[in-house]
UniProtKB/TrEMBL annotation:
Chain ranges of the Dynamin-type G domain: 89-330
Glycoprotein listed as a keyword: yes
Database matches in InterPro entries: Dynamin_N, EHD_N, G_DYNAMIN_dom, P-loop_NTPase, TRAFAC_Dynamin-like_GTPase
Native organism: Melopsittacus undulatus
Stretch forming the signal peptide: none
Gene3D superfamilies per record: 1.10.268.20, P-loop containing nucleotide triphosphate hydrolases
One of the record's GO cellular component terms: sarcoplasmic reticulum membrane
Protein name: Sarcalumenin
Amino acid sequence: MKRLNLLCCCVASLLLLGTAEEAEDNSKVIKRDRSHLESTLKLNEDKPADDFSGVLQRLRKIYHSSIKPLEQSYRYNELRQHEITDGEITSKPMVLFLGPWSVGKSSMINYLLGLDNTPYQLYTGAEPTTSEFTVIMHGPKLKTIEGIVMAADSARSFSPLEKFGQNFLEKLIGIEVPHKLLERVTFVDTPGIIENRKQQERGYPFNDVCQWFIDRADLIFIVFDPTKLDVGLELEMLFRQLKGRESQIRIILNKADSLATQELMRVYGALFWSLAPLINVTEPPRVYVSSFWPQDYHPDTHRDLFLKEEISLLEDLNQVIENRMENKIAFIRQHAIRVRIHALLVDRYLQTYKDKMTFFSDGELVFRDIVEDPDKFFIFKSILAKTNVSKFDLPNREAYKDFFGINPITSFKLLSQQCSYMGGCFLEKIEKAITRELPDLLGSIGLGKKPNVLSCDVTGCGETPKNRYRKP
């Protein structure tokens, strides 16, 4: 018994000694100068933030009066699964962090916000540490918000996340931090990708949740480190979901100061070799090579290069923040164009169905023939010919098989019937928003010369239906 007590005392002494040595080592760690970060992100400026409340109010009015009626009438949300809320219209720019586990995503957020060794810092470690989707946003004081509360608050932009189920909401957490940078931007930290873990084991549709955040992100940082360059099935699926968002993707090779020059060149080449099959664009994505954490760069490394890379990334982030209103208006306009194309296609399907129906026809068989082979009835080609829409903007034909499987064609009205004496025509109103109202709103926030009203030859307005209820 005495020997056992003596052994326990020795172990405890060693643990205390190790803790003391670790604390002493931490006190000797040289911290990196943050002056470049504060100046680039304008954290020291006392100038009040730009007030865009009037522009946001007008943007919200345009959406509700000119875009949403057509969107709801033709059930666009059931095709794209993207419902725009007032919270999303008024939300701050979102920066999304993706990548394998333990590559430094949480450490990078801690560094950008200066949260290290504070009660606010995100937990980091060599093992997989982040198992939740963590939203870091501004608040008057430090506060943690559960996912079910975030989804229930209609004033926030996260209420649509309820559709992913309670298991996911338990893995969603919000953290409010009183930080000046978060007054202008919101960060989203995601669970690290672990290739040997099946999606079903997470208990919620991980890829669908990622897609929801990808669709709403203004900037997407995909973080790697020198030890995790391999691409597995889950990461490959993630890059498929990023298709069409290449302009918002930034690749980060983190922890670069842990390598010698020759090794860094080999790792950089290996990273491009791994990602080349996944990014099918002519221009390669921007890659930042540095080490994003508060400790100083390792000695005998390319300190100047890493610092320049870091400043370039901060300028990229600041550019997104500065252009937040322009990006928001452009996003709503792009959404309106997609809604318009969807409405024109449904209208063409319905018109073709009515033309082919006779007194003795079986309506179900007639429409099945149309939806199985729309090219035989020139549905998509007629849209291209009459509306001057790019073929690259057209939705997938297969998507309409599922869409009409849920929504019977007879439940829709023709566009020419979507008019009223007081409200006008739905298509006419969305065309006005696309060609005049949204460009004018963009010009009102200081983009230079106010844009002219665009013609249908430029924008592809298509045929404006005649309002039967309005007197000539």
